[in-house]
């Protein structure tokens, strides 16, 4: 280990640690406080659209109670939630059915040639999504005849209520001779069954791209892969390995084949960020071989032993990241071609952002390392320390359940 590198790393570590701690001063969950609504539309007979809505129970209680100024609903609903009593949760909703119905009817609408009239069924059921209680509401919409399909608008649990941010509505439908799925949110709250396949493709592509862009933990993991790669071959192999691994578990988790609790998935994702970032720092500290090229490496893809060991670690952590990607959709359905298509398009959106980051960041690091080695080392080291410290802080926060 050269004394020069040691002298560089000491102040670098202190400065970058301060930056990383400021960066993670936000809530422990890099994904923010979000909610997912599940809506399944089908034909309920001539002139009727049947909708099954699954919404977070406690969020429905506080939102409906706040909208109607119904303190009794809030007290009964939260008591049932705290007691984890499904029967009491159903009873609380049924006892205040008018306020619950008013809230849902005003924020989930179906229209044909004109607005459809909703009627919520008397029976309310409870289910769970990733361990969170969800209320299951059955709603029939009486619609006038329409030759141009049906339009669906969802504005459930908007940001301005102040309880959650960025609510997504995962909509599946078998209606008007069309089948498919799409995603509604604050920026794109409406959908028409007359939309083209290209428009439906764009919705899931956009959702995948936005998820990676707004999920800073996944971005930091990718940056750790980039900064720890010595040549283009290494970053391509590492990114491809990550893609293959997370694609496998992403599809298996979203189709209900495998499952893992967020209490395990989220801390492991944070730990993966710290490990991959620290890998680069360890090589820099112990050997000073960060920028050593791979011209002497032999074998498949000309990766040395350290390169293949890193690929193995990336694959294992990629499997866990796939579970995290699946939680963004929250879909847990039997296998179907429609669902598979939606998941693949979502994944393409993720990959598009990954490729974009590699194309932008890696050439800059290579240029710095070759033209200005000392500056390149500082830049790479700073990024690696920020990534490592952020991962460690998130790991501790998620283990302790600190928001």
Record keyword descriptors for this entry.
403 residues; alpha+beta; six-stranded mixed beta sheet; three-stranded antiparallel beta sheet; 9 strands; 17% strand
Walk me through the topology:
Blueprint: H1 3-23, E1 36-43, E2 48-56, H2 57-68, H3 71-83, H4 86-95, H5 97-107, E3 108-111, E4 117-129, E5 132-142, E6 151-154, E7 168-175, E8 178-184, E9 190-192, H6 197-214, H7 216-227, H8 232-254, H9 262-286, H10 305-329, H11 337-371, H12 373-400
Parallel strand pairs: 1-7
Antiparallel strand pairs: 1-2, 2-5, 3-6, 4-5, 6-9, 7-8
Helix pairs in contact: 1-12, 2-3, 2-5, 3-4, 6-11, 7-9, 7-11, 7-12, 8-10, 8-11, 9-10, 9-12, 11-12
Write a structural description.
α1 (3-23) packs across α12 (373-400), α2 (57-68) runs antiparallel to α3 and α7 runs antiparallel to α12 (373-400). It is elongated, with a radius of gyration of 25 Å. The strands form two sheets. A six-stranded mixed sheet has the order 4-5-2-1-7-8, sandwiched between helices. Helix content is 58%, strand content 17%. It contains twelve helices and nine strands. Residues 8-32 and 289-297 have low confidence and may be disordered. The chain is of the alpha+beta class and 403 residues long. The two termini are 40 Å apart. β4 (117-129) and β5 (132-142) form a beta hairpin. It has helices spanning 3-23, 57-68, 71-83, 86-95, 97-107, 197-214, 216-227, 232-254, 262-286, 305-329, 337-371, 373-400; strands spanning 36-43, 48-56, 108-111, 117-129, 132-142, 151-154, 168-175, 178-184, 190-192.
């Amino acid at each position: 280990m050269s004394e020069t590198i040691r002298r560089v790393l000491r102040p670098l570590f202190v400065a970058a640690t301060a930056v990383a701690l400021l960066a993670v001063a936000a809530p422990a969950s890099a994904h923010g406080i979000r909610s997912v609504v599940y809506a399944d539309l089908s034909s309920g007979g001539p002139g009727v659209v049947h909708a099954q809505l699954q919404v977070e129970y406690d969020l429905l209680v506080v939102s409906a109670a706040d909208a109607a100024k119904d303190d009794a609903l809030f007290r009964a609903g939260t008591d049932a939630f705290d007691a984890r009593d499904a029967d009491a949760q159903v009873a609380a909703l049924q006892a205040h059915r008018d306020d619950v119905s008013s809230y849902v009817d005003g924020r989930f609408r179906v229209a044909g040639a004109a607005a459809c009239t909703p009627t919520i069924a008397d029976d309310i059921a409870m289910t769970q999504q990733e361990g969170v209680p969800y209320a299951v509401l059955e709603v029939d919409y009486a619609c006038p005849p329409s030759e141009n399909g049906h339009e669906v608008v969802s504005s459930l649990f908007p940001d301005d209520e102040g309880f959650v941010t960025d609510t997504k509505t995962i909509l599946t439908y078998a209606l008007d001779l069309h089948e498919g799925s799409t995603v509604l949110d604050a920026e794109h709250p409406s959908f028409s069954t007359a939309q083209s396949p290209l428009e439906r493709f764009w919705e899931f592509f956009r959702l995948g791209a936005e998820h990676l862009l707004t999920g800073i933990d996944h971005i930091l993991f990718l940056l750790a892969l980039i900064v720890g790669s010595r040549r283009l071959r290494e970053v391509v192999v590492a990114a491809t390995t990550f893609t293959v691994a997370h694609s496998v578990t992403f599809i298996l988790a979203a189709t209900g084949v495998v499952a893992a609790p967020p209490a395990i998935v989220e801390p492991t994702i944070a730990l993966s960020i710290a490990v991959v970032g620290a890998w680069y720092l360890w090589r820099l500290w112990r050997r000073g071989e960060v920028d050593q090229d791979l011209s002497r490496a032999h074998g498949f893809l000309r990766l040395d032993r350290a390169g293949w060991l890193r690929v193995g670690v990336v694959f294992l952590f990629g499997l866990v990241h796939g579970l995290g990607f699946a939680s963004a959709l929250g879909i847990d359905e039997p296998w179907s071609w429609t669902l598979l298509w939606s998941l693949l398009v979502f994944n393409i959106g993720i990959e598009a952002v990954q490729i974009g980051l590699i194309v932008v960041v890696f050439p800059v690091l290579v240029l710095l390392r070759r033209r200005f080695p000392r500056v390149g080392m500082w830049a790479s080291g700073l990024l690696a320390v920020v990534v490592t410290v952020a991962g460690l802080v998130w790991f501790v926060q998620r283990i302790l359940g600190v928001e």
